[in-house]
Specification:
- The protein has helices spanning about 15-25, 40-50, 95-110, 125-135, 150-165, 195-200, 205, 210-230, 235-250, 295-310; strands spanning about 5-10, 30-35, 60-65, 75-80, 115-120, 145, 170, 190, 195, 255-265, 270-280, 285.
- The relative contact order is 0.13.
- It contains ten helices and twelve strands.
- The chain folds into two domains: about 5-145, Rossmann fold (3-Layer(aba) Sandwich); about 150-310, Lactate dehydrogenase/glycoside hydrolase, family 4, C-terminal (L-2-Hydroxyisocaproate Dehydrogenase, Chain A, domain 2, Alpha-Beta Complex), CATH 3.90.110.
- The longest helix is centred in the last third of the chain and has 19 residues, at about 210-230.
- It has about 325 residues and is α/β, with parallel strands linked by helices.
- Helix 4 (about 125-135) crosses helix 10 and helix 5 (about 150-165) crosses helix 8.
- Bound molecules: nicotinamide-adenine-dinucleotide.
Length: about 325
């Protein structure tokens, strides 16, 4: 008998790809990691550096570099190859170049016999995830974009800071586009079960007058705050990717907001958008439809419209 190894391939060994690999190795999420980059020397350099961590870790995760032919038996492939926005560009400005890069990846990966789960991180992530779904021909459950997973962490941090609790006790979602148009369904935000509205009302001395629209803008702009100071962002998304992979490989049914193909949920179809999703070994197993007020639904649909229009530029 042979027990199958869990294997994650990372395509694109830049800052996001290598940080994600580091998270996966240090957390011992899988048995094997395959690093692939158009710059093969860079991929191998990352492998050597990552191998040097093993001695002081709890688990010997095998890290290798390779080619698309080695992807056939991967459980998850994380696509982080891309062209991050240059100064003055938005994520949407990288759409065409990102689609081109992605196209050069998906064909050869599918030729390898890959039948696992794509986790797309390259921006603009909702559109590129849809592109991967179309190009790969895989079932929708098997193509996931990291979507608003990172923006949700940012939102929870901002709320936590405001009311002085651990961000993990904040139940809140950023939804829609991973980009400037994201929205927050405030009516379902709770601090460990207590409505955020009630928390604000009961703690006026602590939180003062909270401008919720301002908090949404801050959440969406957080990436740029980091970008302006250090040129790019990678730890947050790397941690989100490791969390998503863990949930999938460990078959946890954990709910994480990721980008998935909507088929009638929230009144939207044929578009990838960030919504809470039940993740397990099948990938994006089901969408959780949380209650939204009329105003929240209008905001969600406005964000989805932006995704839909941009996606149309790259789909056949
Ligand atoms: P980076 O420039 O550091 O790395 C990109 C890597 O992709 C490079 O190593 C490059 O050689 C490789 N690459 C380019 N073309 C390739 C190809 N055709 N095949 C294989 N590899 C190729 O960039 P980064 O900072 O790691 O960002 C990567 C992507 O992740 C960008 O699209 C960025 O916008 C995105 N990103 C997404 C999120 C999110 O929340 N979804 C967060 C941060 C960054």
């Amino acid at each position: 008998m042979i027990i199958k190894k869990s294997k994650i391939a990372i395509i694109g060994c830049g800052l996001v790809g290598s940080s994600t690999a580091f998270c996966l190795v240090t957390q011992g999420v899988c048995d094997e990691i395959l690093m692939i980059d158009i710059n093969q020397e860079k991929a191998y350099g990352e492998v050597l550096d990552l191998r040097d961590t093993i001695k002081y870790l709890d688990r010997n995760v095998k890290v290798k570099s390779g080619t698309y032919e080695d992807c056939g038996d991967a459980d998850i492939i994380i696509i982080t190859a891309g062209a991050p926005p240059k100064p003055g560009q938005t994520r949407l400005d990288t759409l065409e170049i990102s689609a081109k890069i992605t196209e050069s990846i998906v064909g050869p990966v599918m030729k390898s016999g890959f039948d696992g789960i794509f986790l797309v991180v390259s921006n603009p992530v909702d559109m590129i995830a849809h592109f991967v779904y179309q190009k790969s021909g895989l079932p929708k459950q098997q193509v996931i974009g990291s979507g608003t997973a990172l923006d949700t962490a940012r939102l929870q941090n901002l709320i936590a800071e405001l009311v002085d609790v651990d961000p993990r006790s904040v139940y809140a979602y950023s939804m829609g586009e991973h980009g400037d148009s994201l929205m927050v369904p405030w009516s379902s935000v709770t601090i460990a079960g207590k409505s955020f509205y009630d928390v604000i009302a009961d703690n006026k001395e602590l939180v003062g007058d909270v401008d919720l629209d301002e908090l949404v803008i801050k959440t969406a702009r957080e990436g740029w705050e980091i970008y302006q100071r250090k040129g790019t962002t990678y730890y947050g998304i790397a941690s989100a990717c490791a969390g998503i992979c863990k949930t999938i490989l460990y078959d946890e049914n954990k709910i994480i907001p990721v980008s998935t193909l909507l088929e009638g949920e929230y009144g939207e179809s044929d578009v990838f958008a960030g919504v809470p999703v039940i993740l397990n070994r099948h990938g994006a197993a089901d969408v959780l439809e949380i209650h939204m007020t009329e105003d929240e639904l209008v905001r969600f649909k406005a964000s989805v419209k932006i995704i839909r229009e941009a996606t149309a530029k790259i789909l056949i």
